[in-house]
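Dig into my protein:

:::
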Amino acid sequence: MFVLRVATLIAATMTTGLAAGVFGLYQHTIMRGLAGTDDRTFVGAFQALDRAIINPWFMSSFFGALLLTAAAALLNPGKPWIIAAFVLYLAVVVITLAINVPLNDALKAAGDPDRITDLAAVRERFDEARWSAWNLVRTIGSTAAFGLLCWALVVRGQTR
């Protein structure tokens, strides 16, 4: 049981760290880079990025972080750091599914940028500022969850 408890906590920490890295990369690099582009480039590039991120590697870390953190909390009862990490990461998942994904889907639904007659209107409806503001919340939340899981590993190591 010890090995399962520790392995689950390590896997939860790793997947949460990977997810935090993705959100952080979007926050400090991708969205900043796209902000300076023309409307056609922005719409086309964001659509391509959104299609590309829906892959088994990202989905495994994104949803795996939630499931593995829940499992780590169940297997390591009485560990407030793990529970707090789960709550924070659950908020990240809810924000993603309730805010960021619908904005992404609406931008993809606008169609091929070469066929959109008013790219500026499509970009404006996407609302980069809103997307980025909520992505900042996801970045902070997932990074804090990662930190809490790292601390849970330290505490776990000290109690052995």
The helical segments are 2-35, 39-53, 56-75, 80-109, 119-126, 128-158. Residues 131 and 156 are 37 Å apart (CA to CA). DSSP finds six helices and no strands in the chain.
